[in-house]
């Protein structure tokens, strides 16, 4: 009898665990302050870490009074973990289907950008966000996604070092800048960079435009960038 009871209890426990694991897990959404601008950073499999952490670093820094100035969120196609090129596992805050109103969309890159340019859902997301955002930013090969979406047609744009000719060839409507001479370029609402650590410079340039040069200097001090330049 005891054996039967133990077996039944074990069976019920296994069933309960299986049912729990089969339930879809809801994404833990970041709380959005509606009074603050929202920076959305797109992520996908194989994203380059620096190009995500740079805007995170820059836009999450508080002002001299200790006040937050932005909501900063990560956005992806699916509610799951994404692995960066460098091996960092990241979970998005929102998906492209439930993203709150953005003021800025940041598009990083990967080592295989054609996977993103050939994804119609990601490209359509960029296209739709361009209608309501104040700024669209790309780093490195993220420029190819902007090119594919058409949101930067007629605009000056730059991409990764040695990628300019290929970007211009694939998207002739872009005004591609020489990546050997230009590291960051802003044309209207489009701001782009060579990527990698240059993503910090582009993020700081955008921060300065959105807030002030004084706040930019404050953030640079917080990041100890001034020490790197000495």
Helix-strand blueprint:
Layout lengths: L1 H21 L15 E5 L6 H12 L10 E6 L5 E2 L5 E2 L3 E2 L8 E4 L6 H4 L2 H10 L5 E5 L2 H8 L6 E2 L6 H7 L4 E2 L7 E4 L2 E4 L4 H13 L2 H10 L2 H4 L2
Parallel strand pairs: 1-2, 1-6, 2-5, 6-7, 7-11, 8-9
Antiparallel strand pairs: 3-4, 10-11
Features:
230 residues, two-stranded antiparallel sheet, alpha/beta, Rossmann fold, disordered N terminus, single chain, globular, 7-stranded mixed beta sheet
What does this entry show, briefly?
The chain has 230 residues and is α/β, with parallel strands linked by helices. It has helices spanning 2-22, 49-60, 114-117, 120-129, 142-149, 164-170, 198-210, 213-222, 225-228, and strands at residues 38-42, 71-76, 82-83, 89-90, 94-95, 104-107, 135-139, 156-157, 175-176, 184-187, 190-193. It has a single domain (34-228), classed as Class I glutamine amidotransferase (GATase) domain (Rossmann fold), CATH 3.40.50.
